[in-house]
């Protein structure tokens, strides 16, 4: 089984400041790793994913994340946020096997203020 | 190209009733997964349908059932509704099993309120 812990439930940040959202996971098997964003009253949109290769992954809208296998972490960063980045962010994992479900963390609410 | 669509967008039911939610997958996709997202929580996997069969199931009671049609669209049925079933129900579609990673594309969800 897999579990995901997002260490911050809410992150307030000023516009043009950097932001980091922390994610740790637990799994007995190798996993793929994901970050999704959810804007109010909408579904989930994939920001980025780690499948293999370089541990630094770049996604859409200027976001990037780094996979750290020894610390079982996959933290999300953006060097300069915009008001439009205000949303809920979810870290998720799925096993590298015939197990197709995504397991999500509880989410981090990012509120960007001018 | 239409993405994943879900209907209805909102639904209000009372305890004990039954509800059916519908999902049409993205063009070219043959696999549909359903997730429940309670308020303030991350989505929880309910089940996945592939080739009209339930391929995998999460920790949900038998009150939750589903179906996939030959055109790959899917329904989620919930019987004997409880107040705790109030949530956003998300559908996600992907391609079939090719032995590797298959990205799941999410629909906008159906907001179910049980009174």
How would you portray this structure in words?
- The complex is a heterodimer of chains A (114) and B (115).
- Helix content of chain A is 0%, strand content 56%.
- Chain A is mainly β and 114 residues long.
- In chain A, the strands form three sheets. In chain A, strands 2, 5, 6, 10, 11 and 12 form a six-stranded mixed β-sheet that branches. Chain A has a four-stranded antiparallel β-sheet with strand order 3-9-8-7, with no helix packed on it.
- Chain A is globular and about 45 Å long.
- The mean pLDDT of chain A is 94.
- Chain B is 0% helix and 50% strand.
- Chain B is mostly beta strands and 115 residues long.
- The model of chain B has no long low-confidence stretch (mean pLDDT 93).
- Chain B starts with a strand and ends with a strand.
- Chain A binds chain B through residues 4, 32, 36, 41-46, 49, 51, 90, 92, 98-107, and chain B through 4, 31, 33, 35, 40-45, 48, 55-56, 58, 90, 92, 94, 97, 101-109.
Sum up the structure in keywords:
heterodimer, A: 114 residues, mainly beta, six-stranded mixed β-sheet, four-stranded antiparallel β-sheet, B: 115 residues, seven-stranded mixed β-sheet, 11 strands, globular
Rounded to an integer, what's the Rg of chain B over CA atoms? Answer: 13 Å
The ordered string of helix (H) and strand (E) elements of chain A is EEEEEEEEEEEE
Q: Output mean pLDDT of chain A.
A: 94
> Sheet bearing the most strands of chain B, described?
7 strands, mixed
Count, helices of chain B: 0
Helix content of chain A: under 10%
- The tally of beta strands of chain A, per DSSP, is 12
Shape assignment of chain A: globular
> Which spans of chain A have pLDDT < 50 for at least 5 consecutive residues?
none
Q: What is the CA-CA span between the terminal residues of chain B?
A: 37 Å
Oligomeric description of these chains:
heterodimer
Structure classification of chain A: mainly beta
How many beta strands in the DSSP annotation of chain B? 11
């Amino acid at each position: 089984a897999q579990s995901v812990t997002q260490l911050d439930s809410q992150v307030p940040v000023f516009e043009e400041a950097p932001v980091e959202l922390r994610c740790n996971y637990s799994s007995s098997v190798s996993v793929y790793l994901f970050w999704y964003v959810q804007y109010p009253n909408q579904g989930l949109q994939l920001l980025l994913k780690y499948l293999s290769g370089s541990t630094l992954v770049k996604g859409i809208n200027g976001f990037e994340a780094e996979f750290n296998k020894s610390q079982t972490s996959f933290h999300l960063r953006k060097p300069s946020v915009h008001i439009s980045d205000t949303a809920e962010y979810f870290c998720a994992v799925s096993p590298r096997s015939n197990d197709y479900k995504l397991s999500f963390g509880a989410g981090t609410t990012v509120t960007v203020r001018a | 190209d239409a993405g994943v669509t879900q209907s209805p967008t909102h639904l209000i039911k009372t305890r004990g009733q039954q509800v059916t939610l519908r999902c049409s997958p993205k063009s070219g996709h043959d696999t549909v997964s359903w997730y429940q997202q309670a308020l303030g929580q991350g989505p929880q996997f309910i089940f996945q349908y592939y080739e009209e069969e339930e391929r995998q199931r999460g920790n949900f009671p038998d009150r939750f059932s589903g179906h996939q049609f030959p055109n790959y669209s899917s329904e989620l049925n919930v019987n004997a509704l409880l107040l705790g079933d109030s949530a956003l129900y998300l559908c996600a579609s992907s391609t079939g099993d090719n032995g590797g990673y298959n990205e799941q594309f999410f629909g906008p969800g159906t907001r179910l309120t049980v009174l």
